[in-house]
Design a protein that fits this description.
The complex is a heterodimer of chains A (77) and B (451). With 77 residues, chain A is mainly alpha-helical. Chain A is built from 2 helices and 1 strand, in the order βαα. Chain A starts with a strand and ends in a 5-residue tail after the last helix. Chain B is flat, with a radius of gyration of 29 Å. Classes of the chains: A mainly alpha (77), B mainly beta (451).
Amino acid sequence: MTRLEPYYSPIDPILYPIFAFLFVVVGLAFLASFIVAQITNQKSQRNLYRELTMALVASITLGLGGFFVFLASGIYV
Amino acid sequence: MNKNILLFIIVLIGINAVCGQWLNQDVTRTIDLTTQISKSIIQIKAKNTGSDSSTYQFAINKSYKASLAVLDEQSKDLPVRFVETKQEFNIYEAKFNSVVKSGSTVSLKVALTLLQQMKPYPEHISQTETQLVTYKDNVYFSSPYQTETQKTTVKVPTGRMESFTDIEPTQSKSSQVIYGPYKDVKGLQQTEFTVHFENNSPFLMLNKLEKEYEVSMWGNLAVETNYYFEHRGAKLKGAFSRLDYQRNPSASASHVSEIKEIVPRDSADFYYRDQIGNISTSTYTYNTNSITLKIVPRFPLYGGWKNEFYTGYNLPIDKFLSRDLDTGRYVLNVSMGVNIEGIYVGDHEIRFVLPEGASDIEFKLPNQIQPVSHRFENRKTFLDTVGRPVLIISTHDTTYENLRYVQVSFNLSYFSIFHEALLVTGAVFAFCILVMILTRVDFSLSKVKSN
């Protein structure tokens, strides 16, 4: 006899619109700060590790935001 | 002398092969002709007269389009497979769960549906005429074995019966014809009877049905159904009068103006479209365990008319997808066809769009006698890299199978579930890197002298 257990989505679909909104807002803020820092910083002030960290944080938040926008709008990837 | 014994043995084997090793002691058939398909319930009491056996054979005329289900005493569905063609019969074999000892008896219940066995006669009727049909079938229970006693009851929808074949002993009551009891009928004997009666039930069939399930590991099961309907009743004579139809739609009894489909209770986000675009004439009502989706086509369907469209809805994944705790495989359990009363399907295709990265795909269909074929395709949709595997299962002539379930199982790594999220993140990160490179590259045409 096989033992079966219902499969649930990693995140409850009810939360998708909230997640989409939060991650997109926070993600855009991080991306904006990253781009501002990129453009205004002088060559002498550059720090590659700091920039990469900012880029990573921005891409994770905005990436998840975009992903949840897909799910919330009914495009179940 | 020796030769004679050998010959005797050969003859004995020959007789055994022809008669089989079962004896039908009593067979009761009830043929329900109230809808467009003939639904027979056959109760069989059979005795094993040969050696111990675990199989029992049935015969169906090879010109019939049939669908067969065999239930044992515990009402359990037995697997049935095609064996061979003998004379004008196809022989099918049901396999018991346990071996039946020689000399013991078994009771079987067979649900046999014959498709397209009822033919409209006259073939053409005007808009307001009632529909008359003829039904032909074997008056004896088609079996490769001998049958001791048998009786057949034919039920027709109304009391109006034009004629029926009289094969002694035959009785007719208001809406019933009873053939038999007949005694000691040999195996594979065929004597056809014809009943000519009024039947105004919709003769609506699906020439083709395409049902697609799209599995998302993020909580959704999208269902889309493509219907290719045809009204197989008596063809409409003359032109269609919209005025007559609007004045009294019930005057033409055999036409179809709406189709009711039962869908799961958790269905949401319905749509109903065809090639032109969205059709707004569909409603759904909630029942205790299901939803009735009422589809009103753009035009009423009369005999010989066709219509095609598609509908779709979403289902929550947790009711249909399970995980096997022992093997870690995912198992999808969904209905095989459409739950429309009295419908039957010509070409039946079921498509499963599985998540990207699904492997070792297997499927299990309910027991049925029609051949099944399958193939795989690849489909690329949103955020796909290598494409999703699509399993396409094709079969034909299905009726009650539509209400039953098909299982598809597959392996999927945990990483594949998050694959798409990582893809979007990666895209944003690539953009950031691009910005970093662009700010570092000097695009100025003339060198600015630094102070």
